[in-house]
Amino acid sequence: MSAMETPAPRPGSVPAEAQAAARPARATTTRYISWVALALMTTSSVASLRPSPTMAVYGLACIFLYLIPALVFLLPTSLVSAELASGWSGGVYNWVSEGISKPAGFLAVWCQFAMTIFYYPSLLGFVASTLAYVFNPDLAASGVWTALVIMVCYWTGVWVSSRGTSGVAGLASGGLIIGTLIPGALLVILGMAFLGQGNESAAPMSADHLLPAWAGLASLVLIVNNFLSYSGMEMNAVHVGSLRNPAKEFPRAIFMSMGLVLVIFILPALAISWIVPAEQLSLTAGIMQAFDAIFAEFGSQWLTPIIGIMLVMASLGGMLTWLAGPSRGLLLISRKEGYLPPFLQRLNKHGVQQNILVTQGVVTTVIAMAYAFIPDVSSAYWIFSVITTQVYLIMYLLMFVAAVKLRRKHPDHPRGYRAPMLVGLCGIGFAASLAALLIGFIPPSQFESGNAGIYVAVVAGGALGLGLLVPYLFYRARKPSWKTVDEGAEEVTA
């Protein structure tokens, strides 16, 4: 997450999953795709420049900190979700419902939705810091500016989404090129030219800095953010049935996409670490700091606002395509099972779940205002990123347990793909996810507020309250009258 950065979670992926859950089964002609095409699709859905400043703090050690989560989280998540997707349609709700129970399935799909409540403030916090370099770089450190940008962008997105505008998802397709590949490649090329002119790297590049300096658990807490960067693979797994030979081709696609994602994540992070000293690096504005510095070096600072606009356009396009997706999936399931009160199930004249979006917007506005009261914008950004990751990790914990139970309960159930050593993969993925969730409660060494108690209280309140308490209260308060008997509800599969 890059949270989901996010993907970060892949823009537009949840709507597809929701639609898959809502469609009745019918005979179709299979349209095959190549494993290379799937690898590129996966890369475009996961790769992002947004987490680069977070890892640039570690310099050369970012290679290690990206590689470890890729092996213990990205790989198990990809292979396990591929087996589930090839055997059970309907996405994570059906997987967890069949493997564990319907309440657990509701918790899983709730976490997919709830993580976006904190994902949007962190994503738009990045937008605010980037946009500051278009007008006045000093605004990047202003909590009031950040809060205003978050609120304006979010509510504008709600207005656009509530009108049922078609084709919004297409905005994200160009985001990979406009906001990731072009700026990322430019940053790396200019960074290499910067070093080639004899300038000294701001971060040491010697072999003894390949591993992060150990200063207690707090020195490794930033690795948690990489779990969000790699999240969303369960969405791409739905395409496993489109391969001619899933058993051989899906692993190839995953390993190729892992390599491409690592290149896109690592090289820009290294380039930033060459240019901006770690102690001066902002977790939200780090990319723009690096571009501003490198353009100044080559006398081309007039390009800084242009790059900023490119990054902002890509991020806003991703936000719009994601905005209605998770809530739509939650709505479809709640209409069938009665998990949400009727007020939240109502649609506007365009058929959009406007009440959910507005309610989510009120919470997002309250969270956005925290930027105005937390002294350091980077600290606020980090807190919201951690909460986003932890809420999403709850869903992954349930997914790994469900996969093991389904393999044991239904060993002969038809599957287009069977993950090798599934129990071992689930064990590694579960342990890594649980460790990341627990480590998230530890303030990172870069956290400057100085009050660990407040940090733990905010993270625990956000992650456990929103991820566990709220869905529990909805489930306990549900009534038979909350089940909506209409065409939309009847189409949802259990």
Query: How many strand elements?
Result: 0
Q: How much strand content do the residues show?
A: under 5%
Distance between the termini: 28 Å
Largest sheet: none
Radius of gyration: 22 Å
Mean pLDDT over the full residue set: 80
**Architecture in CATH?**
Up-down Bundle
Subcellular location: Cell membrane
Keywords: Cell membrane, Membrane, Transmembrane, Transmembrane helix, Transport
Transmembrane segments: 32-49, 55-75, 107-133, 139-161, 168-193, 213-232, 253-276, 302-325, 356-374, 380-401, 422-442, 454-475
Membrane topology: Multi-pass membrane protein
Layout of helices and strands:
Blueprint: H1 13-22, H2 35-46, H3 52-56, H4 62-87, H5 92-99, H6 102-135, H7 143-162, H8 170-173, H9 175-196, H10 224-229, H11 233-236, H12 246-275, H13 286-297, H14 304-323, H15 325-337, H16 342-345, H17 354-373, H18 377-409, H19 422-439, H20 452-477, H21 487-491
Explain this structure.
By secondary structure, the chain is an all-alpha fold. It has one domain (13-22, 37-491): Up-down Bundle (Amino acid/polyamine transporter I). It is 67% helix and 0% strand. It contains 21 helices and no strands. It has helices at 13-22, 35-46, 52-56, 62-87, 92-99, 102-135, 143-162, 170-173, 175-196, 224-229, 233-236, 246-275, 286-297, 304-323, 325-337, 342-345, 354-373, 377-409, 422-439, 452-477, 487-491. The chain is globular, with a radius of gyration of 22 Å.
Q: Which labels suit this protein?
A:
0% strand, Amino acid/polyamine transporter I, 21 helices, 494 residues, single chain, Amino acid transporter, disordered N terminus, transmembrane helix, mainly alpha
